[in-house]
Design brief:
The structure is a homodimer of 219-residue chains.
Chain A: H1 5-9, H2 19-28, E1 32-36, E2 41-43, E3 51-57, E4 60-65, E5 71-77, E6 82-83, E7 98-101, E8 105-111, H3 112-116, H4 126-151, H5 156-171, E9 175-177, H6 182-189, H7 193-205, E10 209-212, E11 215-218
Helix pairs in contact in A: 4-5
The structure holds a DNA duplex (30 and 30 nucleotides).
Chain lengths: 219, 219
DNA sequence: CATTTTCTGTTGTAAAAACAACCGACTTGT
DNA sequence: ACAAGTCGGTTGTTTTTACAACAGAAAATG
């Protein structure tokens, strides 16, 4: 777990805490480490969890598959990102999505109850972590609303523009990489892959953007 | 404000608290009341707020209008519902959506800082409220993901089925009302009104459901 | 009560997306 | 190095949606 402390320091959940503080918290919160090979599931729909998780290494997709095999990717999780916090509340039922490792990954688990309850030893970082958790969830909330904004676009082109603009903005550059290949991007935007591929090339021909693999540049 | 205490008692934010406790909290948190006529805006895109709000009476829509006048309704807010909590974090910028009163409404405002900071008088309900707030946000989070599930449906019919099923489930009956007229439902699902109206009637003719105005029954 | 406005359903047309099938380039694994 | 599989782009067809325009019913207004 030690080797992931630098990643944790950049996590919203631990922002404002130093290396030593985090080490103390890992113990205090009884953090556990899980590793997953590419293609393995961290969580499957219907399972229950009382954990908040942070991705330490690799790449995850949060997704749902319907009865007809149509896949819908809800979110991509990168190192330092937190997930599972929506199921923190005791009354929240089983998880409603799959969490798939799309690369070999390492995940750190924290028991929610230990995070939101003041610990017996009154560890002094605890209150900071609670507030961080709160801010992290509200940030996740805004992210979901932004995704709704993308999904509410009527045409594939508009969805692409909305998504790519957001990505450029959040990465602070008109040149950026996305955590998806074409099929995954289509599943993320809920459109047909071939139609999307078509649209992307048309936009490239019109001079709106350039791309190569999962690297894009908006013009 | 006194007359809205029964509503507040049913709010997730104050669950587990008695009438007296809530009265104490209203003071402790310096709650303010705002009233809005039908058609007025509680918040407009670009404004900043450090408040968490609870709808005491009436009906609100959280929505966005794009440059082309295309409206997208993100959520309907009913009495007892909380909103604005996503902008609780200090680093969250201005609000990204409009909050419109679709009926004459009353809204109670709470300063976020006062909620998440322990009050000087160490009011004993405070810690309960913080935990409730946390659970309420994570519940909102799950609701947003469910909406993403609806929006990720490819066809208008699938969106309708997904939305109406969720509504039936959450209202615990196959007969239920929705907080939208046809145009609003279309804006909520991001589809064309006439196409949706068409699809609804076709589904009715096929015996999938019945409806009259905003009242539906799934068969 | 008459008038205006809003709401809902209907129809026809044009645009867009889904679907299916295929191909060549590139990876992966053995 | 070869076979198998993945990935991205292309094309043609079918289905679905968006758009526009209209009409009757219901609701709101004065």
């Amino acid at each position: 777990m030690e080797k992931y402390i630098p990643v944790l320091m950049k996590t919203r959940l631990f922002s404002g805490l130093g290396e030593e503080d985090i080490r103390a918290m890992l113990t205090c919160l009884q953090a556990r480490l899980g590793t997953y090979k590419k293609g393995e599931y961290v969580l499957r729909q219907g399972e229950r969890t009382g954990d908040i998780m942070v991705l330490a290494e690799g790449q995850l997709h949060i997704q749902r598959d319907d009865y007809w095999g149509n896949r819908s990717i809800i979110n991509a999780v990168s190192p330092g990102d937190m997930f599972g916090e929506a199921y923190a509340a005791p009354e929240s039922g089983p998880v409603q999505s799959d969490v798939l490792a799309v690369e070999d990954s390492a995940v750190i688990f924290f028991d929610v109850k230990r995070v939101i309850t003041v610990c017996p030893s009154a560890c002094r970082f605890h209150s900071i972590a609670v507030q961080n958790l709160f801010f992290a969830i509200s940030e996740k909330n805004r992210r979901l609303v932004r995704k709704l904004g993308v999904m509410s676009r009527r045409t594939t082109r508009e969805k692409l523009i909305a998504y790519l603009s957001e990505e450029a903005k959040s990465q602070g550059s008109s040149t950026f990489s996305i955590p998806f290949n074409r099929q995954q991007l289509a599943d993320f935007l809920s459109v047909d892959r071939s139609a999307m591929s078509n649209e992307l090339c048309r936009m490239r021909d019109e001079g709106l953007l350039e791309f190569e693999k999962n690297r894009f540049r908006l013009l």
